[in-house]
């Protein structure tokens, strides 16, 4: 039986924070192995890297999620005991609820709401000296996501709510003030969502069937029970917050347009859907999710390595997207590589891999791709702008990361 390579560090928790995104990839390269072991938060963790390992990780018969996500991530990013931590029939039933919101007509409604907001903001930006795209995109996405979900949003609260959704995401990899801001944002957001769920159930807030608010408020689990108000609030937010998080990818897409100007012309080519190739490469090339975790369901072996029941297992998302066995010249931004991509659910995993319904793959992947395409085409042709000197570097030791300036635009002019 082969021995698992062990990282010599007594505990790697601080190294994860110090090294950030490349932590797992650095080790898989150093050990020249797709599997190795570390100590994390005082516990043994088996680390996996690459498409073959991703196929193992996304086999729901082998892993569970209950107990796999640290409390500090749940109290900021996704909420305590949400869908991300559920298994078996309970997960399946709740995932069906999320996937029902991703039907083409529902996605189309969101895209129309977003298109309206981009136009509106473009005219506002004409009056501004300096536009920070990341902040503005958060507001645009927040307005459209709330309208799409059936959640009323008053004009005076737009900025606060948009920042709060952003801070929940920003808090997941942070310690100290960043973590604390994330927690504070989450408790404010959950309180707001609880009031929405209560009002819908009391009949004082009319809401259209098919919206996220209606669907979550009236969703019944496998036992035929409504979710308790707190759980419903968390899951409603799990349909809205990640839409606002697309602002991170949109900011990276703006950076890519700026750094690779030949794509501006190619994106106008009517013969090919360049926007699709472009946004797929943005999701591969730029960092967002560092890794995902699960626990071993029952003892099993893989390639002779033992996976004892209850062991924490981490899958390297960041590194799998830049491994040259699957991605030729991975450090080159090259959208055309996606012409040849075979569509495997295991090598291209920026939002998780495997199956949507039976596994934990991101429910919002189609929305993410469509919203990014729309934003890229808008930035390319819906406005003209200058990009003044600024710090566009992004720090890989910070999770999540972003171009430092948030992507500043000046002299914005709407073309439409
Ligand atoms: C799950 C990333 C956008 C809803 C996930 C997972 C990742 C992820 C890494 C977990 C995969 C796993 O545990 O194996 C992202 C990124 C996004 C994004 C980077 C871009 C901003 C969205 C959107 C929505 C959404 C727009 C919905 C509107 C969900 C839900 C889950 C999930 C409900 C839980 C799925 C489950 O546990 O079965 N996402 N996501 N996400 N995402 Fe996303």
UniProtKB/TrEMBL annotation:
Keywords: Heme, Iron, Metal-binding, Oxidoreductase. The keyword S-adenosyl-L-methionine does not apply. Gene3D superfamilies: Cytochrome P450. It holds the Pfam family p450. It comes from the Bacteria. InterPro entries: Cyt_P450, Cyt_P450_sf, Cytochrome_P450_3A. Belongs to the cytochrome P450 family. This is Fatty-acid peroxygenase. It comes from Hymenobacter glacieicola.
């Amino acid at each position: 039986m082969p021995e698992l390579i062990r990282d010599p560090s007594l505990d790697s928790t601080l190294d994860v924070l110090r090294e950030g995104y490349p932590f797992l990839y650095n080790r898989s390269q150093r050990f020249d192995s797709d599997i190795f072991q570390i100590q994390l938060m005082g516990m043994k963790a088996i680390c996996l890297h690459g498409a073959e390992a991703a196929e193992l990780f996304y086999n729901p018969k082998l892993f569970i999620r209950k107990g796999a996500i640290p409390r500090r991530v749940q109290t900021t990013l996704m909420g305590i005991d949400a869908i991300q931590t559920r298994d078996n029939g309970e997960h399946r039933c709740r995932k069906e609820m999320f996937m029902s919101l991703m039907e083409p007509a529902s996605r189309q409604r969101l895209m129309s709401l977003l298109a309206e907001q981009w136009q509106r903001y473009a005219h506002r930006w004409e009056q501004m000296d300096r536009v920070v795209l990341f902040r503005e995109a958060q507001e645009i996405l927040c307005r459209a996501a709330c309208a799409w979900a059936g959640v009323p949003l008053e004009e005076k609260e737009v900025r606060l709510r948009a920042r709060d959704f952003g801070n929940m995401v920003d808090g997941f990899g942070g310690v100290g003030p960043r973590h604390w801001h994330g927690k504070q944002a989450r408790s404010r957001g959950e309180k707001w969502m609880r009031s929405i769920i209560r009002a819908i159930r009391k009949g004082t807030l009319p809401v259209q069937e098919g919206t996220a608010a209606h669907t979550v408020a009236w969703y019944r689990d496998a036992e035929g029970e409504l979710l308790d108000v707190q759980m419903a609030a968390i899951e409603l937010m799990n349909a809205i917050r990640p839409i606002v998080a697309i602002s991170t990818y949109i900011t990276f897409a703006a950076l890519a347009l700026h750094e690779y100007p030949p794509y501006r012309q190619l994106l106008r080519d009517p013969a090919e859907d360049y926007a699709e190739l472009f946004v797929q490469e943005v999701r591969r090339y730029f960092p967002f999710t560092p890794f995902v975790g699960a626990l071993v369901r029952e003892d099993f072996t893989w390639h002779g390595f033992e996976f004892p029941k209850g062991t924490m297992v981490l899958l390297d998302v960041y590194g799998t997207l830049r491994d040259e066995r699957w991605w030729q010249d991975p450090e080159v931004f090259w959208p055309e590589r996606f012409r040849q991509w075979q569509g495997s659910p295991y090598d291209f995993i920026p939002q998780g891999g495997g199956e949507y319904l039976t596994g934990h793959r991101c429910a919002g992947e189609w929305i993410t791709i469509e919203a990014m395409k729309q934003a890229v085409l808008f930035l390319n042709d819906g406005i003209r702008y200058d990009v003044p000197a600024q710090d566009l570097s992004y720090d890989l030791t910070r999770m999540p990361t972003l171009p430092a300036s948030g992507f500043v635009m000046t002299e914005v002019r709407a073309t439409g």
